[in-house]
Amino acid sequence: MPAKLSDASPIKTGAASPGVQHGIQSIRIDRTTVCFEGTMFGGAGTYERLEGSVRGQLDPLDPRNTEVVNLDRAPRNAQGLVDYTVDLCILKPVDLSRGNGWLFYEVLNRGGKRALCRINTAPAKNVPDVAADAGNGFLMKEGFTLVWTGWQSDVTRDNGRMIADFPVPTIDGQPIVGQSQEEFIDLGDGDTFIGTLTYPAADLSPAKATLTVRERERDPRQRPAGLAWRYLNDRTVEITRPQGADFDKGAIYEFIYPAKDPKITGIAFASVRDIVSFLRHETHAADGSTNPLLVNGRPAMKRAMNFGLSQSGRFVRDFLYRGFNEDHKHQMVFDAAVPVIAGSRRTMVNYPFAQPGRYSRQHENHNYPDDQFPFTYRNLHDPISGKTAGILDRCLATGTCPKIMHLDTDAEIWSARASLVVTDCDGNDIEQPENVRVYLACGIEHGNPEAIPDGIIQHPHNPLFYGPLLRPLIRAMVDWVDKGVPPPPSRFPSRQSGTLVPVSELSFDRVPGLKFEGCINELRLMDYSVLPPREGAKAYPIFAVKVDDDGNPVDGVRHPLVLAPIATHLGWNLRAKGHAEGELYSIVGAIVPFALTEAERARTNDARASVETRYGDRDGWVHALSAVCAELVSSRYLLQEDADTLLAAAKSSWDVFEVI
User: Fold this and answer.
1) How many CB atoms sit inside 10 A of residue 14's CB?
2) Under a CB-based contact definition with an 8 Å cutoff, are residues 186 and 193 in contact?
3) Residue ranges of domains in the chain
4) What pairing do the DSSP bridges indicate for beta strands 567-570 and 590-593?
5) Three-state SS string across 99-123, please?
6) Could you read off the pLDDT of 394-432 as tens digits, one per residue?
């Protein structure tokens, strides 16, 4: 019979197995390709791409590994260790001695690379090749060596994605079975649709699974007439929509079923730790294969930065929280950590039936365990859960805490409770640890969405991008670690300044067509011992950024086009009619342009001042834009080259939202 998780014995935490080798067993480089058509990037020269794989092994008895859920139930090799393999990609100067000595490790986002896209403003490609794929070339001009390794086993290699091969645990040789929860929102028009299960069903009996539907996240779960489902096989279900018009294309279908054969996804954290430590400190793997980042036979990487955005930004926070920034020799793995657009959340990675791709939003995937206390980097007491903890507790105990720059956008305020990064659980401002800086890129959405279905949102998405505000922070981080130069101070709205306020205090009444209903992604203490999880009665205090009469934010690191605006820029957008109208749509923002002329403003009855009234003409706007750019450059929140690019474009066009 399959074994249930409740049948499992406690995880052992004894001493590491004696006389065995830890860490990296082999490094295989299958392809080496000169990138970007031989483009020279300043002193760093040309770049090449190395592709291959890493084979590692973990000792389940090592205290540094016992955090990994189910590792003690994994298959063992002849040495009693657990094997894993991950894809590897390195982008480095052809002459590594010309680099800056920094290993820039980007945690992949669902198997895909995003650093070049988001930092270099390059195309979103997983296999950078031609010159245009370098974007503005920022990371290469700085001399970084970029490293990626696969860490998810639930993605595929299509479109250049990278994956990991992690083992499946058992209990006494039997498959592990546990409850798993799927959530579907289907946009189709048919009477039925197909749902794919993350894990195979352990029992195809309909009596062992449940399906419910609700129109909005806060609505009661229902089983109305006509709602039906059936297994097509152990990985797919066919769902029949209920009768009537009560549930539209935004309705949430929740399927709970007995699943089996989870993979040990928490190995992801240990693999990153061991691979980066190896590349920094070792010359050869256990099988004799060579570290590809050597100069004159010695490791060339003197520093390492852990970078992640969105899903991978949450990974960075969880990596620190779970104590993986200490390697087997008690060395610090990463000197710097830059979690971007993570909000107050972590990841659903180190769980028995993990779903790393899920993340809590106001409407979608609200009930997955990636968002519970602790929220802050410093240690705090939570009166709601009764716990006392902080993200950095474990690295503080071992002296392995990196310097941290945490950057969120307005979207994380609304969808990821970013205010909890800077307040305690009673809603009071907190002081950040000395090694932490926090920044909020106000008036900007989570990230340029690749595709939004037609008719699903009420306003066009906000095209402003945080890349130009991130680049100076990356440069400042290097100077902070290498030279001890203090970075730009934290810039985040606060309760004391009156710029971090309850949602009920916000008004967008002057913004035409904006039906603001006070919707934000609330958070309560959750009990995940049952599915669906039980929700606590008391909500955590969640705050949003105060806005001016135009609806634009008044505090944080403000993009030049928010400081000298020609539109209202929001970090949230509402679902349209037929799609759970009025709920927040995912992590997408909105833009509502100002009228260009006073005549247009009067004709459209727009209460906001026209561009003409604010600036006179384009030259007046460019003058105002130049002034705010100068202030941002002076305070080190914007690079001069980005200011120059924006101002040059503004002189010839009003449409400059995506120029930098």
Assistant:
1) 10
2) yes
3) 22-100+110-169+262-298, 174-260, 500-519+545-650
4) antiparallel
5) CCCEEEEECCECCECCHHHHHCCCC
6) 999 999 999 999 999 999 999 999 999 999 999 999 999
* C-alpha span between 80 and 16 (Å, rounded): 11
Determine the residue type at 632: L
* Residue 98 CB coordination number (10 Å): 16
In terms of Cβ atoms closer than 10 Å to its own Cβ (0-12, 13-18, 19+), residue 634 is exposed
DSSP 97: G
**Could you tell me the pLDDT band of residue 22, with boundaries at 50, 70 and 90?**
low
For tokens 């794929």, what's the residue?
Answer: 133
Provide CB contacts within 8 A for 161, sequence distance 6+: 108, 110, 111, 112, 126, 155
Question: Bridge partners of 440?
Answer: 408
- Cis check for the bond before 532: say yes or no (omega within 30 of 0): yes
Cα dist. 210→4, 81, 235, 237, 531 in Å? 19, 39, 15, 12, 10
Measured CA to CA, the distance from residue 391 to residue 609 in angstroms comes to 44
Give, as one character, the DSSP assignment of residue 582: T
DSSP run (H or E) holding 321: helix 311-321
CB atoms inside a 10 Å sphere around CB 193:
17
Look up residue 76 and give its two tokens.
Answer: 């063992």
Contact 177, 257 (CB under 8 A): no
Rounded Cα distance, 62 and 274, in Å: 13
CA distance 525 to 389: 15
Given the DSSP bridges, would you call strands 403-409 and 436-442 parallel, antiparallel or unpaired? parallel
Q: What is the average pLDDT across 461-486? A: 97
Tokens in use for 115? 């650093």
Vertex 473, ends 472 and 478: CA angle to 5°? 100
Beta bridge partners of 575: 457
Please report the pLDDT score of residue 451 as a whole number. 82
Asked whether residue 495 carries a pLDDT value surpassing 90, the answer given is yes
Q: What tokens were used for 49?
A: 């791409």
In the block, residue with structure tokens 């920044």: 439
Structure tokens at 434: 């000395």
CA distances to 153, 261, 380 from 354, rounded to whole Å, are 11, 11, 27
Write out the two tokens for 249.
């294309």
Q: 139 near 341, Cβ under 8 Å?
A: no
Strands 82-93 vs 164-165: parallel, antiparallel or unpaired: antiparallel
End-to-end CA distance of the chain: 58
Residue 438's pLDDT band, with cuts at 50, 70 and 90, is: very high
∠ Cα 306 307 311 (to 5°): 120
DSSP for 517-574, please give it: -------EEEETTSSSPEEEEEEPP--EE-B-TTS-B-SSEE-HHHHS-SEEEES--B
Tokens (6 digits) for 586: 């995912």
By the 8 A CB rule, do 571 and 414 touch? yes
Residue 527 CA, distance from chain mean position: 24
Sequential DSSP letters for 190-225: SSEEEEE-SS-BS---GGG-EEEEESSTTSPPB--T
**What is the structure's pLDDT at 2?**
62
Q: What is the reported pLDDT for 267?
A: 98
Any residues with CB less than 8 A from the CB of 496 and at least 6 apart, and which?
429
CA distances from 442 to 245, 335, 350, 437, 586 (A): 38, 27, 32, 16, 18
Q: How far apart are CA 476 and CA 53, in angstroms?
A: 32
